[in-house]
Amino acid sequence: MLLSYKKNMTGYKPTEVAVILTDEKKSIIWVNDAFLTITGYSLFEVLGKKPGSILQGQNTSKETIELISKSLKKQLPVETQIINYRKSGEPYSCHLAIHPVFNDKKVLTNFIAFEMDESTKSPESEYSMLQVQKKYKASSLEPMDEVTLFRRLNTLIISKNLFLDPDLDIKLVAVGLKSNTKYLSQVVNNQFGNNFKHYINQFRIDKLKEVIKDPKNKGVNLFDMAQQCGFKNKSTFHKVFREFTDATPKEFLMQNKDK
Prior knowledge:
The protein is an alpha+beta fold.
């Protein structure tokens, strides 16, 4: 995936550095796999959200939040320690560095943040993550057009609930984005790590899990619910559901029956 951090840093393992990319308004447009591992969130749960709204909690220092806010408002880099929270509610201390990203006209386009879970940091490490930007930007931020198109794709799919259409295909979406199928397919593969159909099915499964958990749907046939979420074929629905959840639809229903 784009922005996958591959270079070793003294005291830091590559997979331990969470990377968050936002737009200029600080809304998340991409995170790396390490972020998902550290926080417990899925990519689709954080897209469009502001990092602070999902990571900060009761014991997050107000002074630290203010420091970050003032620095970003002035479009300056900032490095600090902060208490963040995983999806489970568990707090963790982390080393955080955030950089503004500018285009060739010196206009702010993005913010990129690097987060290191302190529990996995080597005691002898004195590596400043503020030094990461030069290496990272040189090798990883060049294909910004891909990130931008992926953000537009996510916005279109979510805002219009296009995934609910069982006949949705990449040609239709490409037209909506004023792009082409070849480039759009490349972007989805690079950003999502799989093909377009798999990408759309992720939205359908996330929606279906919500529908199954809704008490109002108690007693509703599972495939009827699946059809509401964009699935057309029963066998495909069962196969895809198991692929994403490691459980059959019926097993998932039983697991969440009393929740």
